Amino acid sequence: MSALIHVKKVWTNFLSQGGFDAHALSGLRVVSVSKGSCLAELDVAPQHLNRLGGCHGGLLSTIVDVGGSLAIAAENMHATGVSTDLNVSFVSGAKLGDKLLINSRCDRVGGTLAYTTVEVSVGDQVVALGRHTKFVRLAHKANKEMKLDGQA
Questions:
Q1: What is the DSSP string of the chain?
Q2: Most buried of 17, 49, 68, 94 (most Cβ within 10 A)?
């Protein structure tokens, strides 16, 4: 299976679980994937805005979380672990109708932790920079035991 198809299946699985990711990022599109990296995009919609009309920081934090997970999936992992640390620097703003480009990279997957970097931009303008660390020890075990659809 190609890396692109694999990551799209992981993302579809995330969405099928419902919850916050499905609510906030249902419009996220995986555009391209190579080993350890993922490019996705999201059009800023009314539900993504803060009270001042800009892209909400919580949305950008969620994008860093999910982007990091998809970069780990691009390392051919079905399960992507649980967050242990997330850092986001808000560099500039985005507004309604902007297309957010989400460039995620898995810097390292070890036996216990995975480290990712996520850049969110609108065109050439960086909106947010994030780092995401995930605990993956149990994910390694799950990846050996589960199919992509979550069935054992």
A1: --HHHHHHHHHHHHHHT-HHHHHHHTT-EEEEEETTEEEEEEE--GGGB-TTSBBPHHHHHHHHHHHHHHHHHTTT-SS--EEEEEEEEE-S--BTT-EEEEEEEEEEE-SSEEEEEEEEEETTEEEEEEEEEEE-HHHHHHHHH--TTS--
A2: 68
- Residue 151 banded pLDDT, cuts 50, 70, 90: very low
Which residue pairs, CB below 8 angstroms and at least 24 apart, start in 111-116?
Answer: 111/136, 111/137, 111/140, 112/136, 112/137, 113/84, 114/68, 114/72, 114/75, 114/80, 114/81, 116/67, 116/68, 116/69, 116/71, 116/72
The architecture in CATH of the region 3-145 reads Roll (3.10)
Indicate the length of the chain as a whole number: 152
* In the chain, where the domains are located: 3-145
Structural Rg of the chain based on CA atoms: 15
Token pair for residue 74?
Answer: 């691009």
In this prediction, residue 137 carries a pLDDT of 87
